Amino acid sequence: MPVITTPLSPHIGLEVHGLNLERDIDEATRQALLDAWTRGGILLFRGCRSAEAHLRLSRCFGKLESSATPDLNVDNNPYLMELKYDPEKRKGPGPMMRVNGAERAGWLGWHWDQSFTSVIARGAVLRMIEPAAIAGETGFIDGIAAWQRLPVQLQERIRDFEVVYHFTPEMEKNPYGFPTDLVNLKTDPESMADLRKYDFPPVVHPLVIIHPETGREVLKLSPMHAKLVLGMDPAQSDSLLHQLADHLVDERFAYFHQWSEDDVIVWDNWRVIHSAAGVPLDVRRRAQRTTLLGDYGHGRYLDPAPGREPRTATIAD
Ligand SMILES: [Fe+2]
């Protein structure tokens, strides 16, 4: 059966139509989905009504990575993580923030997942079970197109640079590509304590990689957790990272998905950065996510000394 797609935006993303997610997906269809994923960077499916359908669809795009955060697992399934915000308990993953004057739970700035680890997962598959009544959008920007929008002179200057990343649980301390008026509301000390328990040593990633399926260069910068261009004078590094992050997170080139119940989005974590708008503190939202296993093979620990393994292999973002 041919896979029918339509663009989600002029810049990134395809919606897949007419696929029955309650049935097995044959090999020809799976290949067509992989081709569409390569064309679109992200794929949207509608009508994914069960965890079984979510897991089956996820496996079309690769092997699944098991979670290192069992507290977020659904029904003790290590491949299925629940991301929810409960307004009654004022509890959800991450801190609560004031962003552009609005109080938000679950807000996340632009990032690729796991930038603070040496191994970068291939992608993720997010299913919306209970969409937010207000806000809750997820944004996506294509790192290939962002690279192509850079002046050639700048491309040549930065092509071989590397960037140091270090896990920063306090969102407001991420300087690059983030709003300048972020305020951490610290309404849930327990959640903050949860995040601080993770101890990730600094890692190094290239600023530019070749995307394996397209052969194109990707501006592989995750504004969240980025600290320094390796080996560069700190002031120059700061200036360059501000310039590149501001360029990358230019929302004129983003697609923001307004979620409906049972929507699923698959994103390519080696190519696409994403962000979460979060929800007002009295608005519920519940989603589940699988993670696509992979390693692009370019990350490393800043300090290669033995005994510097992190306490956990991965967390959600
Ligand atoms: Fe994320």
Folded structure, characterized:
The protein has an eight-stranded mixed β-sheet with strand order 1-2-3-18-9-20-5-4. It is globular, with a radius of gyration of 19 Å. The protein starts with a strand and ends in a 16-residue tail after the last strand. 19% of the residues lie in helices and 29% in strands. It has a single domain (4-84, 96-301), classed as Double-stranded beta-helix (4-Layer Sandwich), CATH 3.60.130. A hairpin with a 6-residue loop joins β1 and β2. The chain is built from six helices and 21 strands. Residues 311-315 have low confidence and may be disordered. The protein has 317 residues and is an alpha+beta fold. The longest helix is centred in the C-terminal third of the chain and has 15 residues, at 234-248. The chain has helices at 27-40, 51-59, 143-148, 152-158, 189-196, 234-248; strands at residues 4-7, 14-17, 42-45, 73-74, 77-85, 96-99, 102-105, 108-111, 123-130, 138-142, 162-165, 183-184, 203-206, 208-210, 217-219, 226-229, 255-257, 264-268, 272-276, 285-292, 300-301. Residues 111, 113, 274, 317 line the site of fe (ii) ion (FE2). Residues 111, 113, 274, 317 line the site of fe (ii) ion.
Furnish the topology, listing elements before pairings.
Elements: E1 4-7, E2 14-17, H1 27-40, E3 42-45, H2 51-59, E4 73-74, E5 77-85, E6 96-99, E7 102-105, E8 108-111, E9 123-130, E10 138-142, H3 143-148, H4 152-158, E11 162-165, E12 183-184, H5 189-196, E13 203-206, E14 208-210, E15 217-219, E16 226-229, H6 234-248, E17 255-257, E18 264-268, E19 272-276, E20 285-292, E21 300-301
Parallel strand pairs: 2-3
Antiparallel strand pairs: 1-2, 3-18, 4-5, 5-20, 6-7, 6-12, 8-19, 9-18, 9-20, 10-17, 10-19, 11-13, 11-16, 13-21, 14-15
Fe (ii) ion is lined by residues 111, 113, 274, 317.
